[in-house]
Amino acid sequence: MTSRFARAAAAGTALAVASLAFAACSSGPETTPDDVITIFAPQDAAQGQDLENNAFTELIEEKFDVDLKFETTNWDGTAAAEKRQISLASGDYPDAYMLIPWVDQFSMEELVKLGGQGVILPLDDLIGEDTPNLTAAFEKEPGFQELATAPDGKIWGIPAWNDCYHCSYPSKLWMNSAWLDTLGLEQPTTPEELRTVLEAFKTQDPNGNGQADEIPLSASGGATLLSYLMNPFLYTAEMYSNAEGVNPSALGAVNGQVTLQATRDEWRDAISYVTSLYADGLIDEGAFTQNGDALTAKGNSAEGVILGSVAVMHPWFVSADNEDGRYAQYDPVAPLAGPGGDDTYYSGGGAGAAPGATFVITNRSSEAKQQKLMQIIDFMVSYEGHLQAEFGVEGVDWVQPEEGDVALDESLEPNFELTTAPSGEQLKNAWGPMAQFFSDAEFRNSQVTATDIYTAEGYERRLFEATKLYEGHESAELFPFWEVKITGDTATELATIQTNIENFIVQASAEFVTGVRDIDSDADWDEFQQNLTDLGADRYVEIYQTAWDESK
């Protein structure tokens, strides 16, 4: 939930550290004994997670006769990326890295670079008869193996295959239905209808406290906000992955031609619309800079309900324990129909299914350790291991289904039900999303879920049903970058150009909306276009166009 726009400011520093890392890793580090495996991993202390003292860690240590030692970071994307790069640059890196895709995973470019330098090891020869569960997963979902295979044809790491239905449509808008009822309004269906609703939220005291304290529209980081508001004008992807610039989110495909969306007049019109909302005080001033904690503080304000609508993937910004019932007030708003229609929407294809890897083995790991690590991963891919790794202890964190229970996907047999952990103990016994190596649709959607979507127990069903509003509105302009293979010197060249352009568009978008740049000024628009050109926009498009043509 870290601000995407705040993270962009640190990109230059991270890139410099990355370069240092690659330069520093040429010599082999010292290793620890074969029964001691060191792992770099993120942990969430706020949810009670302590990887050194964790039920699943203890299970792994006993099952595989190893002692796990963790070098940890948190779930903040900026901090995690920086600490990972520093770890590599030190030369004293661990036996393995085990990451979370939406926090900070390895990009394909990083994998090929580090693999070529011998810092990380190829896994191809370690996958086979000794990893039956992983092999079976590759066979069941060929896209999983394809996702794991780098442009050079090798498997340098294992990605997360997280077939998360609600995650695959991240750019959602959640609106306070109680406020709509109070004001006698319907959910908006167009950008201008949205403006009318937001104006009413701002001026007509829908929370009834006699104060002008309502926030019509808020967000955390701005990525979802821009994607939702701009998609009625043109296809606008939301990057839901790891570090900035890893995916070519700014690109589209128009009539078979790779296009940098920010060079189009429709993009200018879209930003102009968002800017007008911001200028009229209809968008929270903190929408582009605040983190998740700040948004949650507003959603759970002790002064009462103050949020009219929020652009986030799901309504985590409000807690179920508020006595005023605000938890049940927010409902999803379908894609808006604008000049581009309502079929310009973006499907992310699964939040965890991003090219790259969450797990790699370094050259610090001995052959014995390599085998142990792959056995651990293979166990986590198995059904039994997955349940314990992601969720925790049976009977404590999850239970077997009972007669009458209903799976999230009602066409499936229910397989497990999660219990409600006390606050601050949700990950006390588990590795959580770090363990989502193979969460296919069958696994995820066989979870028992309450049928009342406005209870905490029915939350997953609430997300599942909400997402149905967005499915079917995918854009024909979506550029299938995951089908494109770019290797060698071209990949090295692309990595720099892509990082610079993607980060710059993130920054410039916020500057246009907040008035630092004037979207109505031809001079400012021309300067923006020149900035893109100077950063290599033409070459950026050319590289992807050539590779895409060759892949067809």
UniProtKB/TrEMBL annotation:
Residues 1-23 form the signal peptide. It comes from the Bacteria. Keywords: Signal. PROSITE patterns: PROKAR_LIPOPROTEIN. InterPro entries: Bact_solute-bd_prot1. This is Putative aldouronate transport system substrate-binding protein. It comes from Glycomyces artemisiae.
